[in-house]
Amino acid sequence: MSFLHLKTAILTLLCCILVVIFIEFRLIIKPAGAPWPTRKRGVLGYTGQDEMAPKSSLSAHASAELVSRARLKKLSTMCWKYRSIMQQKNWNMILDGKLHVGFCPIQKVGSTFWRRVLEYCGGRRRYTSVFEVKWQDMKTPHVQKYRDRGPSLLESSIKFMFVRNPYQRLFSGWVDKLLSPNPIFWEKVGVRVNEFLNQKSTFDCGHDVTFAEFVKYFIHTQQTKSGRDPHFIPMYEHCSPCHHKFDFIGTMETFNKDAAYLMEIISNRSHVNISIEDMKGAGYDSLNDHTMRLYRFKPDTLKCVSFHNAMQRSWRNLQIRGYLGKNVSLPFTRVEAGSVKRNTFLSALVTAYESSGSKSYRRANRREAMMEAYGTVCTDDLERLRQIFKLDWILFGYNDRPIEIFELSRHYNKSFSFFDVEE
């Protein structure tokens, strides 16, 4: 064998050894049965800088995308299966012409937060926090309704929506609009509930409507198609997801993961740094928002209840939402309430919030409060609600007969009542 042939044989052998070592190494780092890593185009058409992202961030990003794909696939399947009963409703898509983002807002499903994000990233002003954006700041020229912009912008925009368990959403609407000090909705909805039930509330203010009474009125409005309010009607009616294509569907139950995915995309489009880390101020923002509303509505609220009662209602709202623990009580007496200044009340909320225990302990309030509320609703009305929200269950994959609502709430032990608010 010549020297040249020997050299060629040695080089071939070395190459074979290197290939074997490389394959063995790949098998070690690759779990059995897992696909080889590939870089695919995202569900929103976004590719991003995946190679530079931390492993944990990449995993969360991919997880949110895959889950949304599954939701969209299920939505498509159900839309076809139940196409005979699907009716196109009003489409409330909001389009951001600067960011090319389309969002279908549904009340009580994080709609205010996403309006804030669009203004924070695409508005003319510069904010230090997404929670610095106020309601009046959200009505800016670059964000308009679909009917004012046309299909061309829609086609080039990322379109998303968020959904929520319908039972939770209905309960949340009652807490925010009728249990809380909200004289606008006391008059708009509460008075009508009492009129429907042929009863008069004290001073005829509509502030004393129980959840069970509200449910009866809501069922009536759905059956008669009159007096309906967008805060309570089924979610599919807001966005007509069977008639319009969405690129992403998020849920309130997985909000942090879904929001992180969308915020990364919006951040890249706007070149404004925003991430899920900006959500850390959500608790303090809620405390401030409740304080502002309490004092802004004070003159009208006092026509119906004492200011001490209004304070208790705000306090209860924050306990039900999981910001305040059951172990902290309103620190002001009925006599003191009238002289308590706004900043003093806010300081009391902050102190209570920071001493309310762990997040998991506080969040348990949500489940307990909802069980207490639905425990007062008769079985027949629960079945009527189940039928009213039928398309929401079908399209978005929620359980239409959760054990907490249909069974456990029937035997709820009220060691602490979330709705016992002293007059």
Mean pLDDT: 82
| Succession of helices and strands | HHEEHEHHEHHHHEHHHHHHHHHH
The portion of residues forming beta strands comes to: under 5%
Total strands: the figure is 5
Please tally the helical runs, counting DSSP H or I stretches of 4 or more residues. 19
By secondary-structure content and strand pairing, the structural class works out as mainly alpha
Give me the oligomer status.
single chain
What is Rg? 27 Å
Shape: globular
Low-confidence stretches: 19-57
Helix content: 40-55%
The end-to-end distance, rounded to whole angstroms, is 106 Å
Identify the strand order in the major beta sheet. 3-1-2-4-5
Main β-sheet, in a few words? 5 strands, mixed
Please tell me about this protein's structure.
The chain has 423 residues and is mainly alpha-helical. The protein contains 19 helices and 5 strands. The chain has helices spanning 3-29, 55-81, 111-122, 146-149, 151-155, 166-179, 183-196, 211-224, 236-239, 255-270, 282-296, 298-301, 307-320, 334-337, 342-354, 359-374, 379-388, 390-396, 403-406; strands at 94-96, 101-104, 143-145, 158-163, 248-251. It has a 5-stranded mixed sheet with strand order 3-1-2-4-5. Helix 7 (183-196) packs across helix 8. The relative contact order is 0.11. Mean pLDDT is 82; it is low at 19-57.
